[in-house]
């Protein structure tokens, strides 16, 4: 069996690595992550990978080759931090917006057959579209033929609408074909919050639970539960009385503009202080998924901020996937990740493309 070696850049907690690590045809040799706690979390879940915990700009050719131990890299995966490209909040053309050049530099050193570059959809409109045009030109300049498509994780069994630009490059002709949706109209139903949280006990603000309430009785629950018997990371943040009354006053899917005048916040975007829908997938979550004043993230049934476990469920992380650091750092690890089920769909297509490329 042919095995393809992979390096994961800007690896985060390992969501993009997940799909490739499941398959025996792929071997993740090394990964890079600048944040210490997040690099620890990655290693907890991918212990066989050589983690380079440093600024990517400090990784020299010598360091890279030493980390690889003489192995040839077939595929590079990863995406630069996306805050500069996000359509949520301020968008800035700063140094982070040019981190793709570091990605290109590593490609130039390793010369892999292929790469997978992922990012938020905001990169397409950044600098009136000129940034993404430049990204593609830079990669074409070093010999890659490109394909790109926006994929929504909800179409692959993730209980969340989460669009990502997936740019795939190959040396020579590009045989990559994007994965067909598995969920949606005419297919399996989308996974809604009620499905993703079906075995999680109801909580009030400040409460926690360590036992599931039922058996995994759906494909999604069987995937995330696996053989886990003890529930972890299911604790609801404690909020003040006024915020609790505000959340309890909201109906399913309602936002601050639906509140009585005496409870309505005087500031905030239309989608802040807003409940999710119990019978729909979540909107895109961020690192602030436990902050009711952030983008829509209030638990629709329990009228509270979400637990770390619920955030991980919305991303489709298995319950045995480990996060590391403070509660805020764990939410950052979850909120910035590529959903594992999306990475699985991409990895399967990459294997087919690599095998046809040989």
Summarize the structure.
The chain has 358 residues and is of the alpha/beta class. It has helices at 15-21, 36-45, 61-68, 100-110, 130-141, 193-196, 219-225, 241-249, 308-315, 327-335, 340-357; strands spanning 4-9, 26-32, 50-52, 75-78, 114-120, 144-152, 163-171.
Q: Which key features would you list for this structure?
A:
358 residues; Rossmann fold; 11 helices; single chain; alpha/beta; seven-stranded mixed sheet
CATH C-level name of one domain: Alpha Beta
The strands making up the biggest β-sheet line up spatially as: 3-2-1-4-5-7-6
Q: What is the helical fraction, as a range of percent?
A: 25-40%
- Which structural class fits the helix and strand makeup? alpha/beta
CATH topology value of one domain: Rossmann fold
Shape field:
globular
The CATH architecture of one domain comes to 3-Layer(aba) Sandwich
**Total E-strand runs:** 7
Series of secondary-structure elements, N-terminal to C-terminal: EHEHEHEHEHEEHHHHHH
Strand content: 5-15%
Mean pLDDT: 94
- CATH homologous superfamily assignment of one domain: Vaccinia Virus protein VP39
Q: How large is the radius of gyration?
A: 21 Å
Assembly state of the chains shown: single chain
- Summed up, the helix count is 11
Terminal residue distance: 13 Å
Instruction: Pick out the low-confidence regions.
Output: 85-94
Main β-sheet, in a few words? 7 strands, mixed
């Amino acid at each position: 069996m042919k095995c393809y070696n992979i390096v994961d850049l800007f690896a985060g907690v390992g969501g993009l690595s997940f799909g490739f690590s499941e398959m025996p045809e792929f071997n993740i040799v090394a990964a890079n992550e600048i944040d210490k706690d997040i690099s620890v979390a990655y290693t907890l879940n991918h212990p066989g990978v050589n983690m380079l915990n440093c600024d990517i700009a400090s990784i020299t050719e010598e360091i890279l080759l030493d980390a690889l131990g003489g192995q040839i890299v077939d595929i590079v995966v990863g995406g630069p931090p996306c805050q500069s490209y996000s359509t949520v909040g301020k968008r800035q053309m700063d140094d982070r917006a040019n981190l793709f050049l570091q990605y290109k530099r590593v490609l130039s050193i390793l010369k892999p057959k292929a790469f997978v570059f992922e990012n938020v959809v905001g990169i397409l409109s950044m600098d009136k579209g000129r940034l993404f045009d430049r990204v593609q030109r830079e990669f074409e300049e070093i010999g890659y033929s490109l394909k790109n498509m926006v994929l929504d994780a909800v179409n692959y069994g993730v209980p969340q609408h989460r669009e990502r630009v997936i740019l795939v490059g190959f040396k020579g002709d590009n045989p990559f074909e994007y994965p067909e949706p598995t969920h949606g109209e005419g297919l399996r139903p989308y996974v809604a919050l009620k499905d993703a949280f079906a075995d999680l006990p109801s909580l009030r603000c400040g409460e926690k639970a360590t036992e599931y309430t039922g058996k995994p009785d759906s494909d999604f629950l069987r995937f995330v539960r696996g053989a886990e018997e003890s529930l972890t990371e299911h604790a609801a943040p404690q909020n003040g009385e006024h915020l609790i009354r505000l959340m309890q006053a909201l109906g399913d899917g309602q936002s601050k503009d639906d509140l009585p005048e005496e409870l309505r916040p005087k500031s905030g975007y239309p989608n802040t202080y807003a409940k999710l829908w119990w019978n729909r997938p979540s909107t895109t979550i961020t690192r602030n998924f436990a902050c009711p004043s952030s983008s829509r993230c209030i638990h629709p049934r329990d009228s509270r901020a979400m637990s770390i476990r619920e955030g991980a469920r919305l991303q489709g992380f298995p319950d045995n996937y480990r996060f590391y650091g403070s509660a805020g750092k764990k939410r950052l690890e979850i909120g910035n990740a590529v959903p594992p089920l999306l990475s699985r769909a991409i990895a399967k297509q990459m294997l087919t493309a690599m095998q046809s490329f040989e």
